[in-house]
């Protein structure tokens, strides 16, 4: 085979990326504008970066996140892709989804995740009324003083909630953070808090629809005043404090009271979280779908 034929075959084997895929998320701009923007983003990425994208719609999310600013979107998507590779997101998912790991690295990762998840401080359960997976966060159930392990667990749970949402043709998840009985001593170290915010804002752009904060005590205001400066305006708009009548109404209209936990005004006695059962199921399965 001559070099020209070989080059043509290699070209045919390259996956052609559009930078968008059809789903049920609402558009921010006209279809032609969004597709043109995605095309420009894709053309600015290397083949290695394109292959490292977690899904075809990543360019579209960045285009929308940056309000159509292609230059900014390119910079941020390159950072997010590099972060996924450096952090080893795919490696974590392989280990978590392997019920019978055979190598030491996978065994260690799976063990860390199961220990971090053992108290049910962070896990995916059911969906909201728009079919978005719900990621529950219970700060008072914190059982770790290892920042790296804590963040690893966070990333896995975000990935799981995304997988549970994408099967319904959507991309954005819902987070419910319950602060019942929370005290300042329960606050995460600022290092972990800042990393959490950074990951949600820069590594998972356009992945959160709403962030509900329930049962926040008065003392929580002190912690919130420290956290707010690290939130960008878009993230702040997604935060719903469920202490006012308006916040409570938003809770009631967002969820089926028979399918959510008590912190989200649920009325059913849902089964208690079990970490073994949770990790025995596929990535795109919420705890109540087992």
Automatic annotation (TrEMBL):
Which GO terms label this protein's molecular function in UniProt? phosphatidylinositol transfer activity
What InterPro entries does its record include? CRAL-TRIO_dom, CRAL-TRIO_dom_sf, CRAL/TRIO_N_dom_sf, PI_Transfer_CRAL-TRIO
Name of the molecule in the record: CRAL-TRIO domain-containing protein
Q: Show where the CRAL-TRIO domain sits.
A: 110-272
User: Gene3D superfamilies of this UniProt entry?
Assistant: CRAL-TRIO lipid binding domain
**Chain segments annotated as coiled-coil in the UniProt record:** none
Give the Pfam families listed for this entry.
CRAL_TRIO
Source organism of the structure: Chaetoceros debilis
Stretches the record annotates as Disordered: 1-27
């Amino acid at each position: 085979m001559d070099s020209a034929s070989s080059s043509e075959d290699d070209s045919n084997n390259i996956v052609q990326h559009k930078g968008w895929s059809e789903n049920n998320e609402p558009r921010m701009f006209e279809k032609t504008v969004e597709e043109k923007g995605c095309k420009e983003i894709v053309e600015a990425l290397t083949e290695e970066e394109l292959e490292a994208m977690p899904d075809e719609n990543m360019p579209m999310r960045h285009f929308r996140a940056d309000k159509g600013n292609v230059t900014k979107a390119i910079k941020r998507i390159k950072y997010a892709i590099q972060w996924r590779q450096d952090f080893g997101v795919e490696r974590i998912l392989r280990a978590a989804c392997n019920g019978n790991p055979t190598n030491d690295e996978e065994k260690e990762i799976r063990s860390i995740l199961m220990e971090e998840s053992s108290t049910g401080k962070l896990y995916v359960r059911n969906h909201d009324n728009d079919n978005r997976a719900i990621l529950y966060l219970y700060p008072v159930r914190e059982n770790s003083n290892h920042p790296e392990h804590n963040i690893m667990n966070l990333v896995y749970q975000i990935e799981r909630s995304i997988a549970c949402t994408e099967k319904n043709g959507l991309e954005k998840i819902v987070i419910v953070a319950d602060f019942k009985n929370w005290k300042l001593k329960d606050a995460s170290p600022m290092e972990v808090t800042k990393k959490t915010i950074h990951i949600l804002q820069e590594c998972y752009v356009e992945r959160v629809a709403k962030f509900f904060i329930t049962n926040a005590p008065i003392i929580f205001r002190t912690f919130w005043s420290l956290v707010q400066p690290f939130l960008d305006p878009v993230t702040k708009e997604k935060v719903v404090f469920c202490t006012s009548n308006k916040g409570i109404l938003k809770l009631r209209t967002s969820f089926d009271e028979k399918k959510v936990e008590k912190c989200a005004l649920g009325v059913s006695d849902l089964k208690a979280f079990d970490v073994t059962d949770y990790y025995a199921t596929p990535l795109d399965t919420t705890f109540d779908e087992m």
